[in-house]
Amino acid sequence: MNKTKESIDCFVTVAKSIELHAKNDTNPLKIDYVQLLANSYEKLGQIYRKNNDLEKSLHYYKEALHISSQILPKKDFSNIKNMTMIGDLLFKLEKFEEAQK
Predict the structure, then answer these.
(1) What is the CB neighbour count within 10 angstroms for residue 54?
(2) What is the CATH number of the domain that holds 9?
(3) Chain mean pLDDT for the chain
């Protein structure tokens, strides 16, 4: 679990750093920041899922989807993958009504 904690800490640090740079950057090409942030959240979702922390995993997959859907088409593979993971987690958490939305 120690390596897992290190991985989580690393991705949280990366996500916070990306958010900070995106807010302070005057460069109009912020899509890179958004995609990096979405990828970081997706990785956090994966780590928490592998460690059976399904609630935290669900939270980070939802964050990844929210962010990536701002820049990518709805049918993009990344969005579809995140929606699939969210649906699977909702099913495992027995949140059937939310899964139907």
Answers:
(1) 17
(2) 1.25.40.10
(3) 85
